[in-house]
Design brief:
single chain; 290 residues; alpha+beta; YaeB-like fold; 5-stranded mixed sheet; 10 helices; elongated
Length: 290
């Protein structure tokens, strides 16, 4: 739930408030316990209050057309199951058909490798039925955060290829897992002015550096990431694509990646590049000091 809370705090993902359940937390079973028992054990009172506030949409059919989905399949006598990865055992999952059909995301406790996935596949007992995918958020790792964030962004903007500039900015802010990306106003304005391929390249640079574990902590290899020179710029680094000329000036503060400026190689050389770096440093310092 702590990781789910992190996800809900990201405005670019447009997550609808509330977790849908068929029963109230007092009745929802979690293994040999009830969900309410687990919530009561949380010591942080504010966090506990927030969790209770999430479980207000029950029963599900009062809010969404859940029963309609099941009625469509009732006459066909189909059942759905999830196949256990290691043993091949078929776990009855017909109750997950409605969330899958309605395009929801499952909030999962990763109690086994079967559920430790970005997407759960519901298989049909009949060859005439269709396989149903269901996204699953367990928040156990950065890869899961990225998968769910991208899925939410694509669905909101109806842009599967992430071609629109709004989609790219939303993805840029959510492409490094659990950690936060802060983008300065100057960065966003300049990003919007870049050509389409330059925008994609910039987003790819950030994602690549994070995937290679070069951001937290920063690892300057003088190719992808280079330390910026000059008094006062000791904490500023340049993320760059030498071939295509994109330069991103950034800092890291705690678990936040601060993107202070973005330029192309043609725009800044010599004194002009130094000015760009100095400005990016100032922008990042001001954000840290807030």
């Amino acid at each position: 739930m702590w990781n789910y809370r992190k996800l809900t705090k990201r405005p670019e993902l447009h997550i609808e408030k509330g977790i849908v359940t068929q029963e109230d937390p007092l009745s929802v079973a979690m293994g040999h316990l009830r969900l309410n028992d687990l919530i009561k054990g949380i010591k942080d009172k504010d966090f506990k209050r927030w969790i209770y506030g999430q479980f207000e949409k029950y029963p599900a059919d009062l809010y969404y057309k859940v029963e309609q989905v099941y009625q469509e399949y009732a006459e066909l006598d189909y059942s759905y199951f999830v196949e256990e990865k290691e043993s091949g055992v078929q776990i009855n999952a017909t109750h997950l058909l409605a969330p899958a059909r309605l395009g929801w995301c499952l909030l999962t406790m990763p109690i086994s490798k079967t559920w430790l996935s970005h997407q759960i596949i519901l298989k049909c007992s009949s060859e005439h039925g269709q396989t149903q995918p269901l996204m699953s958020f367990h928040g156990d790792n950065d890869e899961n955060f990225n998968a769910i964030a991208k899925w939410l962004i694509i669905n909101h903007y109806h842009d599967e290829k992430i071609d629109r500039v709004e989609t790219k900015i939303a993805w840029l802010k959510n492409c490094i897992g659990k950690r936060e990306v802060w983008i300065s106003q100057e960065f966003e304005e300049r990003f919007r002015e870049l050509a389409t391929d330059e925008q994609k390249n910039a987003t790819g640079l950030v994602s690549t550096a994070f995937t290679r574990s070069m951001i937290f902590p920063i690892k300057a290899d003088n190719r992808l990431i280079k330390s910026c020179r000059g008094k006062g710029n000791e904490a500023t680094y340049e993320l760059r694509d030498i071939g295509k000329g994109i330069r991103i000036y950034f800092q890291c503060y705690n678990d936040i990646l601060l993107l202070g400026g973005i330029h192309t190689k043609a725009e800044g050389v010599g004194d002009e590049q130094s000015a760009d770096i100095n400005h990016a440093t100032l922008v990042c310092k001001n954000r840290i000091g807030q």
